[in-house]
């Protein structure tokens, strides 16, 4: 009887303590929080440049290409800086393939349809169409793992089927050749965002890395934004000037995105997003997809790159007749001034700032893998996203916070853009006269 009474008392005590919270469940580790978040909300990357890599490396020829393993892909002169004429192509691993994407829980991607801003209108339009074709062929060649998507419903369906939802984003307004008809055609073939500029200012929008010509958007540039809204194409403000950002936010009736950008308060690069613009993004309902490009995220690298450019110019001015001497002097300067290393912690700093300034609902990820995000310590390729989420969890981000960063915020914005387009489907097409 005594044992029965003792057992009953122990049970009652345990129940009381559990009810009162004194016997709380063990706290989850950062690794467990991150894993739980990524199980419920896979990663959606806003900007990966696989099409650019394959244009440079393979000239869009996919014969023999295996997207399950790109670690043995031969490079070309752009990616292999020490290549010698006639030499066997050096192996320069890509950062993205289906194997590493699975390891990284990457299950939605805006594949960047990038073309050089140095191309003329005709060349840019052609190259854009070729990049769209290339990426669609890759998707079609991997039907068990990839699903081409042009709306949010397809993204969610692809996730349920265990496939990578594959969307297209055109990187640079020069891709439309100054024609809203081309913009509409890009929409018809599945492009769902367009970056208004790239490195160079277009005839209708100022870039963040070129001399301004228009004080932001021209009247035609504002019409481009309006027509993108009407169609349901996301307005991407990465690469544009601060004034272009403000003009687009003023005009856009739908949420905008920054497909691969960072906080200017952390690193002063002109391509990054100022606090003034961040405040407007919050009012607009848009998202900033944080970039992994070392020169944009690391304030040390931003300064170092500027100093190196200055030293290079100085040596060329001192030795215009001796390029070998100028090159040797620059090499000596680099040895004396080693380049700072950008790390995962720098990425976290940008995320933290955006969260503190405008909230968790406005943060996503846009790695720029295979487009320049090389050398970032802790985030080498598409297998590494979990490391970032573990670090965020370690800093106190909750599972729900991480789910929003992983893909929830992108999904919300795409749905909002689609809703805006549906509400305005009766609006008149925005027209512009032909230029020739």
TrEMBL record:
GO molecular function: metallodipeptidase activity
Keyword Signal: yes
GO biological-process terms attached to the record: proteolysis
Extent of the signal sequence: 1-24
Stretch list, region Disordered: 66-86
Basic and acidic residues composition bias: residue spans: 66-80
A Pfam family that the UniProt record links to this protein: Peptidase_M19
Domain of life where this protein originates: Bacteria
Top-level class of the enzyme under EC nomenclature: hydrolase
EC code(s) of this entry: 3.4.13.19
Keyword vocabulary terms for this entry: Dipeptidase, Hydrolase, Protease, Signal
UniProt-listed PANTHER family: DIPEPTIDASE, MICROSOMAL DIPEPTIDASE
Protein name (record): Membrane dipeptidase
